[in-house]
Amino acid sequence: MPPDVSGAFMLDFLFGLFSHDLAIDLGTANTLVFIRGKGIAIREPSVVARHKKTKKILAIGSEAKKMIGKTPTQIEAFRPLKDGVIADFDATEAMLHHYIGMTHEGGSSFIPKIPRPRVVLGIPSGVTEVERRAVQEAALSAGARVAYLIEEPMAAAIGAKLPIESPCGNMIVDIGGGTTEIAVISLGGIVINRSLRIAGDELDEAIVSYVRLKHSLLLGIPSAEMAKITIGSVHHSVTEKHYVVRGRDLENGLPKSVKLSSSELREAMAPVINQIIEAIDETVEEIPPELVGDVLEQGIALAGGGSLMPGIDRVIAEAARMPVWVAEDPLTCVVRGAARLLDDKKLLDRVRVTGGLR
Ligand code: ADP
Ligand code: MG
Fold first, then answer.
1. In terms of C-beta distances under 8 Å and separation of at least 24 residues, what long-range contacts does 215-219 make, across chains too?
2. What is the rounded distance in angstroms from the CA atom of residue 168 to the CA atom of residue 298?
3. Is the CB of 306 under 6 A from ligand 1?
4. Nearest 5°: CA angle at 276, between 273 and 281?
5. Stated pTM of the model
6. Half-sphere exposure for 155 (CA within 13 Å, toward CB)
7. From the CB of 159, is ligand 1 less than 6 Å away?
8. Which tens digits make up the pLDDT trace of 111-167?
9. Which residue, 3, 27, 37, 227, is the most exposed by fewest CB within 10 angstroms?
């Protein structure tokens, strides 16, 4: 090994001993931060609230999420990464600054100058090259010593413990808030990748339209999401439950409550679920013949918040005619997959899409 390489390696190793290297899942709905050697330290909604005119950031994370639908006209509360693209770069940068900054709090403040962390960031696969550079710059300016970007389906597959380096087909479907990422991975690379802009958010919107049409009730998105998480299911075999939602009566404008059932939500969500299933089916049809047998044997792994929906594995299995299973702790697959790469530089170099020093 030439001396400069081993020198760089030693320096990196020593930095690693003192700095809190980070893995970040920059999701459309939730941002998670994993501190190496400690575990998941931050789990917050990817929401920013700011003043419309002055652009001053007022809140980030759960504080900002509470404001959605309740803000006075001069304030906006929104998702900077809606639909898997960086819809608002300044807000994304502010969010990264905020979360990277939080990991320093209460840290080794007695050490005069803490080495800056290495950061592995999972980003939606639909993010363009220009946006990737921008996210990387944001991470560097937020205090990262070096920032590596990896695609979310790759991180999710690693987090779901799929044997991604083996010469076989590994299929992962990550149903998040703004996007559903469908990928087939083999030999450490993505063979097929599809990013669908239909996921949990569209399920919430479908519930809002259903309740408006069927019950003449105007419902806010957060209430629809709460109903979905509390009683939602997508397979007829799942036990029926009920949940009361409150909104505004479209006929007289007065507040009104309606008791919704799981089967009503199933009917409301069916068109969206069918679009997700269709995209999975189309992807399965594109799998190269040498890999399709493996996928048939191993099944499709599900990750992301949407995979927590009761019955989702069954409806997909019935439609795709192959085994489907939900990964362990599906909401944290991406961040845990990214965190594994902090310990495995060789694998990181193989799967990262970009990264390195500025
Ligand atoms: P992202 O990676 O895009 O940030 P997540 O993987 O964090 O998204 O998933 C967020 C989505 O999962 C939201 O649409 C949320 O409503 C949904 N979700 C979370 N928990 C559940 C649940 N128990 N049942 C159904 N959907 C859920
Ligand atoms: Mg995600």
1. 215/258, 216/249, 216/250, 216/251, 217/245, 217/247, 217/248, 217/249, 217/250, 217/256, 217/258, 218/247, 218/248, 218/249, 218/250, 219/245, 219/247
2. 10
3. yes
4. 125
5. 0.91
6. 33
7. no
8. 444 678 999 999 888 788 888 888 898 899 888 999 999 999 999 999 999 999 999
9. 3
CA dihedral 297, 298, 304, 305 (to 10 degrees): 70
Q: Identify the pLDDT of residue 1.
A: 46
Cβ atoms 197, 84 nearer than 8 A = yes
The structure tokens listed for 286 are: 């594109």
With tokens 């020198």, the residue in question is 7
* C-alpha distances in Å from residue 185, one per residue of 49, 126, 239, 252, 263: 37, 17, 35, 54, 36
- What's the pLDDT tens digit per position in 173-202? 999 999 999 999 999 999 999 999 999 999
Provide the β-strand partners of residue 30. 45
Judge if the beta carbon of residue 65 lies within 6 A of ligand 1: no
Location of structure tokens 């890999």: 291
H or E segment and range at residue 249: strand 242-249
Cα-to-centroid distance, 267 and ligand 2 (Å)? 25
CA 63 to chain CA centroid, Å, is 19
How far does the centroid of ligand 2 lie from the alpha carbon of residue 84, in Å? 9
- For the chain, which residues score pLDDT lower than 50? 1, 3, 106-113, 356-358
Residue 161: C-alpha distances to residues 74, 228, 330, 334, 338 (Å) = 46, 28, 11, 11, 12
DSSP code per residue over 146-168: EEEEEEHHHHHHHHTT--TTSSS
Please report, as a single letter, which amino acid is at residue 338.
Answer: A
Distance of CA 27 to the CA centre of its chain: 3
Which residue out of 208, 226, 229 has the highest number of ligand 1 atoms within 8 Å of its CB and is therefore the one to mutate?
229
